[in-house]
């Protein structure tokens, strides 16, 4: 079935307008809310604050790397910065932002009044500030915070870790619990609370990608929990999971970590795919090309993501058979990913496009994520990876897929749906300015890193040989441009909420989906009665 | 250009031909200049068969990506230009095509299989460690490398540590950085050209990784696990690499320098090293003068101890205790030797018995007892160390 | 607050959500267990396939059934190292030997406790190339158990091994490394790696 276009009606729309339930005011409202819109808002603001904190750490890193020599910070602190930048961006910015978007949008997109388990939803969110407060506070504790990379390989993270590693483990457990509970909620909502008439193959792509992502989270977050528990036992209870002395194996750590870690990176991109699949059709005024294919491709990517983990470990000393298998599996996963890109381009093809800010971010996503995909393809070639592994070539690759990839999709989503959430349009010129600054900034920051990696610069070093100097200087300049541009985004959002032009219900001319049948701003409670799906606009 | 030529022709009545020769020269010049510039951006093709194979594979995949990129981005940009509402176009409504989906699933799959074939060949070649001419053990420490040479019977002949040699003044911007900043060591690894050298890679503490880009080889050094690498270097020269696995504070400060010597020169050097190692073994029973001990001791101290205990012996209390005027350096010499030999588990004080022979240990302990403000009454000889660890002293 | 359309459907939705939640929670618990199960699974895979340089536990050798393959000579070299914080001396009698596949050989190793206290050491073996590891059988090895040494004590430790004749033809050199660790303070436990013999 083609792109789902449902014209439904929320029968209780007018009714609610008369008896709009006023939520509690002040702190109590936010602490105790079980409303998916409020919780979505909390997640999104939290993730933005985390983005700024993680971004500040990135700027500390790039400031030190501006020139050769140690100018500002000591190597030990540098390692804490790289570690916490990674942890905060992955677990504190990208993932919670996607959960926030899911909270806001999934119920409205499927015609449900709220998430399946609203009180658990509240708990899922409020664990996060606690977890990250704990993690960030370790930077100020004696011995310093975690300094072993966001990938925390043993024995650097066990036998040789600072005392704060125990808090790190606790923090990871908390973040994991939050993600798991969030995923249970999302799956239950999608499976049980769709409006009548909305079959699975009629759901918006964003809902599909989140359904699949939620299953991935359920599968791998517990493995991460098991892994850090094993670490805890090795550190405090005398076991030897990863200590060769007692019969353990540091390489096993890597296998278990990446069994979690690889699906994790797909967890961070699949919702992005869903967002882009909603935005491009709207601004091309054309249905998404190959809806069924997009669903199958997403599911294939998710399934294959469990089979490729050791491509992060090509240099660890794996036997030849292992290397070949993981190389082939990794090459294979490029196929469904490519299919998705082709489908987006085909959606644009012979549409009638306009280029509002969400569309700019979405198009940049397609182009720049594809570049990240190309460097990923190069990395998949195991013999070549011997020259790329643990260099800035890898750093360039994953920043391309995560920043102009995941982050741009989140920015696009906020621009796209903000008018629905707050009933006001953002300033289009400022939005476009934010886009262009971000686009230029992100490329100036990360493109040169391909070259410093090819030239031989390793990762995670606070100082470097002279031949890498030019690339690093350019990269640092780009980082400052990109970083400070996000403050412009903050301004745009606040300005919109406070004093933006009132938005229409449909907001965007080409927008389709249940959420666009609601008023802007969406009332506090929506779809208290499931919408009657009155017609499905079929597309030939 | 076409329009311009037409205008000129119209004005002057003269038909201006396309300057093909000029175009070719210009294009070639641009390509050559661009090529040299592009080379500076690219991975090295290196000095071994493997590094060249990897380079060619890298370029093959790169060009395939470029072609795919040109096609996909070309379609996107064409679409952005032509299929916009401002041009007044009506959006088409087509939204599926099973045949197209099959096509753009199958074609990439075939391209990937085409990539996988040469990649597999290269991998098989890289894993062929047999038939080596010599073996060197490479061991990663926090934060230096140790190299041990094995003779034809695989007995260890000599070994040494390879420490970063860049002065801290350069690192802390107090003096101008040298050409090989952060990529220079006190004792480089030396291997012969044109012989198959096998490396056995281990680690003392955490995971490190040994990488020489020009050789196209990299392998993790995992504590408790043995890894194997090989190389045949065609061209003598000096080649530099770095540790490529986060291993703690000075991960960025433990480079690798390999000096590849012509075979004859290598054999001469090797013979000399074996002779010196033999002399060193004999020195274990020698009695040194105080001056000799101080000279050797100072050198050992500055290489192994000064980063933590500081050149002036003042340390960084409480983490790195002061040695100048400490109870240990002024107390019983056997307790002092034992502490240096065994280290202090759970702290940064390593077990230097693993790293220094009895001569170096005696010298450095002697130095610590007599340098700065210290003036112990005793002299420390290698046999004191040997007797202690043999259990023949209290 | 949600206004239920009809009481029976409202309750059943809540029940359905709860049921779904519990089913999913079961997946979570299962995957947590799977994470821990990966530990023995990993060892099992390493042993069965020989991947990862593991050499397996004590090998029962029946001299009557094995004939050396005189057509091949395999170079075996031994490397010994003591890990960080382990100040014992540890060396092999010889750096290497040449053996025929199927031939039982012995190599002697020595350890000396150089400290003034009683210590316990554990040697961990590792073999390269990885494809050879599963064919390297130890019938007797000090690595099968912890070694307790008094201060100053010197111990000679024999290791007996036999290389299976199925060793891939392209393997001519095999390296065995032992890494010696200080396990004095480890709680007494059976090796986590599973087999009582192995690393």
Description:
The complex is a heterotrimer of chains A (540), B (394) and C (199). With 540 residues, chain A is mostly helical. Chain A contains 16 helices and 2 strands. Chain A has a two-stranded antiparallel sheet with strand order 1-2. In chain A, α12 runs antiparallel to α14. In chain B, α3 packs antiparallel against α4, α7 crosses α10 and α9 crosses α10. Chain B has 394 residues and is α+β, with helices and mostly antiparallel strands. A 5-stranded mixed beta sheet of chain B has the order 3-2-1-5-8. Chain C is flat. By secondary structure, chain C is α+β, with helices and mostly antiparallel strands. In chain C, the strands form 2 sheets. In chain C, strands 3-1-9-5-7 form a 5-stranded mixed beta sheet. In chain C, strands 2-4-8-6 form a 4-stranded antiparallel beta sheet, with no helix packed on it. Chain C contains 2 helices and 9 strands. Chain C is 24% helix and 32% strand. The chains are: A mainly alpha (540), B alpha+beta (394), C alpha+beta (199). At the A-C interface, α6, α7, α8 and α11 of A face α1 and β9 of C.
Shape of chain B: elongated
Computed Rg of chain A: 23 Å
Described by its quaternary structure, the protein is: heterotrimer
Low-confidence stretches of chain A: 1-19, 535-540
Number of strands of chain B: 10
Helix content of chain B: 40-55%
Radius of gyration of chain B: 31 Å
Count of discrete structural domains of chain B: 4
Give the CATH superfamily of the largest domain in chain B. Answer: Cupredoxins -  blue copper proteins
Beta-strand content of chain A: under 5%
Helix content of chain A: 55-70%
Global outline of chain A: globular
Poorly predicted segments of chain B: none
CATH topology of the largest domain in chain B: Immunoglobulin-like
Total beta strand runs of chain A? 2
């Amino acid at each position: 079935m083609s792109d789902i276009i449902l014209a439904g009606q929320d029968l209780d729309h007018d009714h609610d307008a008369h008896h709009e339930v006023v939520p509690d005011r002040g702190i109590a409202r936010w602490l105790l809310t079980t409303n998916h819109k409020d919780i979505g808002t909390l997640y999104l603001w939290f993730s933005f604050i985390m983005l700024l904190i993680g971004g500040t750490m990135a700027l500390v890193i790039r400031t030190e790397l501006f020139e050769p020599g140690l100018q500002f910070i000591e190597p030990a602190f540098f390692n804490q910065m790289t570690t916490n930048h990674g942890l905060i961006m992955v677990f504190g910015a990208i993932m919670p932002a996607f959960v926030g978007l899911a909270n806001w949008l999934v119920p409205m997109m499927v015609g449900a009044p709220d998430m399946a388990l609203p009180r658990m939803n509240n708990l899922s969110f409020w664990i996060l500030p606690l977890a990250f407060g704990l993690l960030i506070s370790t930077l100020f504790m004696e011995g310093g915070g975690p300094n072993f990379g966001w990938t925390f390989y043993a024995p650097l993270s066990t036998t040789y870790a600072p005392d704060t590693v125990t808090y790190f483990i606790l923090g990871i457990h908390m973040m994991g619990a939050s993600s798991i509970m969030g995923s249970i909620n999302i799956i239950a909502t999608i499976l049980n609370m769709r409006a009548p008439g909305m079959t699975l193959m009629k759901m918006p792509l964003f809902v599909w990608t989140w359904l699949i992502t939620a299953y991935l989270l359920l599968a791998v977050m517990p493995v991460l929990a098991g892994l850090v528990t094993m670490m805890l036992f090795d550190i405090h209870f005398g076991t030897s999971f990863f200590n060769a002395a007692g019969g353990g194996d540091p390489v096993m750590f890597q296998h278990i970590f990446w069994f979690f870690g690889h699906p994790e990176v797909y967890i961070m991109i699949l919702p992005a795919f869903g967002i882009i699949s909603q935005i491009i059709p709207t601004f091309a005024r054309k249905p998404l090309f190959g809806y069924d294919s997009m669903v199958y491709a997403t599911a294939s990517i998710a399934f294959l993501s469990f089979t490729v983990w050791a491509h992060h470990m090509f240099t660890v000393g794996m036997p030849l058979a292992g290397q070949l298998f993981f190389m082939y599996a990794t090459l294979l996963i490029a196929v469904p990913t490519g299919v998705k890109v082709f489908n987006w381009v085909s959606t644009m093809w012979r549409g009638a496009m306009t280029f509002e800010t969400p569309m700019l971010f979405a198009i940049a996503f397609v182009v720049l994520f594809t570049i990240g995909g190309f460097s990923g393809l190069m990395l998949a070639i195991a013999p070549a990876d011997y020259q790329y592994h643990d260099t800035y070539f890898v750093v360039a690759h994953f920043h391309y897929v995560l920043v102009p990839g995941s982050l741009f999709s989140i920015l696009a989503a906020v621009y796209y749906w903000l008018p629905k959430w707050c009933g006001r349009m953002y300033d289009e010129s400022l939005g476009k300015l934010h886009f262009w600054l971000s686009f230029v900034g992100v490329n100036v920051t990360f493109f040169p890193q391909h070259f410093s990696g090819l030239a031989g610069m390793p990762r995670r070093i606070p100082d470097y040989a002279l031949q890498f100097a030019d690339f690093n200087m350019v990269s640092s300049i780009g980082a400052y441009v990109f970083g400070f541009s996000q403050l412009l985004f903050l301004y745009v959002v606040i300005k919109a909420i406070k004093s933006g032009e009132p938005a229409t219900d449909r907001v965007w001319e080409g927008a389709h989906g249940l959420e666009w049948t609601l008023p802007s701003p969406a009332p506090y409670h929506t779809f208290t009665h499931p919408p009657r799906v009155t017609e499905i606009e079929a597309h030939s | 250009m076409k329009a311009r030529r037409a205008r000129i022709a119209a004005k002057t009545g003269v038909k201006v031909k396309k300057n093909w020769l000029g175009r070719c020269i210009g294009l070639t010049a641009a390509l050559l200049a661009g090529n040299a510039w592009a080379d500076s951006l690219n991975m090295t093709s290196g000095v071994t068969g493997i590094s060249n194979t990897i380079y060619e594979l890298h370029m093959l995949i790169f060009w395939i990506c470029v072609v795919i990129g040109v096609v996909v981005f070309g379609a996107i940009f064409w679409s952005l230009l032509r299929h916009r509402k401002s041009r007044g176009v009506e959006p088409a409504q087509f939204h599926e095509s099973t045949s197209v989906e099959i096509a753009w699933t199958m074609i990439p799959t075939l391209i990937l299989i085409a990539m996988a074939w040469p990649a597999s060949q290269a991998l098989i070649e890289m894993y062929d460690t047999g038939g080596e001419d010599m073996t060197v053990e490479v061991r990663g420490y926090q934060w230096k490398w140790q190299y041990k040479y094995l003779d034809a019977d695989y007995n260890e002949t000599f070994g040494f540590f390879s420490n970063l040699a860049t002065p801290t003044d350069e690192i802390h911007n107090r003096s101008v950085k040298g050409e090989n900043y952060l990529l220079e060591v006190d004792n480089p690894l030396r291997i012969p050209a044109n012989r198959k050298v096998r490396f056995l890679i281990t680690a003392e503490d955490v995971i490190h990784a040994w990488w020489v880009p020009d050789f196209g080889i990299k392998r993790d050094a995992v504590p408790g696990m043995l890894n194997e690498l090989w190389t045949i270097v065609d061209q003598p020269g000096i080649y530099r690499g770095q540790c490529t696995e986060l291993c703690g504070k000075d991960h960025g400060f433990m480079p690798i320098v390999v000096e590849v010597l012509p075979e004859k020169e290598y054999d001469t050097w090797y013979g000399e090293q074996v002779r010196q190692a033999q002399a060193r073994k004999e020195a274990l029973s020698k009695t040194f003068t105080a001056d000799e001990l101080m000279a050797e001791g100072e050198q050992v101290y500055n290489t192994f101890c000064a980063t933590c205990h500081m050149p002036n012996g003042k340390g960084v209390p409480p983490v790195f205790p002061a040695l100048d005027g400490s109870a240990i350096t002024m107390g019983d010499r056997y307790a002092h030797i034992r502490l240096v030999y065994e280290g202090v588990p759970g702290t940064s004080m390593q077990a230097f018995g693993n790293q220094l022979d009895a001569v170096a240990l005696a010298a450095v302990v002697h130095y610590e007892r007599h340098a700065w403000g210290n003036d112990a009454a005793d002299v420390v000889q290698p046999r004191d160390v040997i007797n202690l660890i043999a259990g023949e002293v209290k | 607050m949600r206004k239920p359309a009809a009481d029976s459907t409202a309750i059943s939705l809540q029940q359905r959500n709860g049921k779904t939640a519990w089913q999913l929670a079961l997946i979570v618990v299962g995957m947590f267990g799977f994470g821990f199960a990966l530990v023995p699974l990993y060892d099992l895979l390493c042993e069965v396939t020989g991947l990862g340089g593991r050499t397996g536990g004590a090998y029962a050798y029946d001299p009557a059934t094995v004939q050396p393959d005189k057509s091949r000579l395999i170079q075996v070299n031994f490397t010994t190292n003591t890990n960080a914080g382990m100040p014992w001396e540890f060396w092999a009698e010889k750096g290497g030997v040449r053996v025929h596949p199927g031939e039982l050989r012995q190599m002697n190793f020595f350890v000396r406790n150089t400290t003034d206290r009683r210590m316990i050491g554990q040697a961990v073996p590792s073999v390269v190339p990885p494809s050879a590891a599963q064919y390297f059988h130890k019938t007797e090895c000090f690595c099968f158990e912890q070694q307790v040494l008094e201060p100053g004590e010197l111990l000679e430790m024999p290791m007996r091994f036999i290389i299976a004749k199925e060793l891939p033809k392209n393997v001519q050199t095999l390296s065995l490394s032992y890494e010696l660790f200080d396990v004095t303070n480890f709680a007494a436990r059976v090796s986590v790696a599973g087999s009582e013999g192995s690393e």
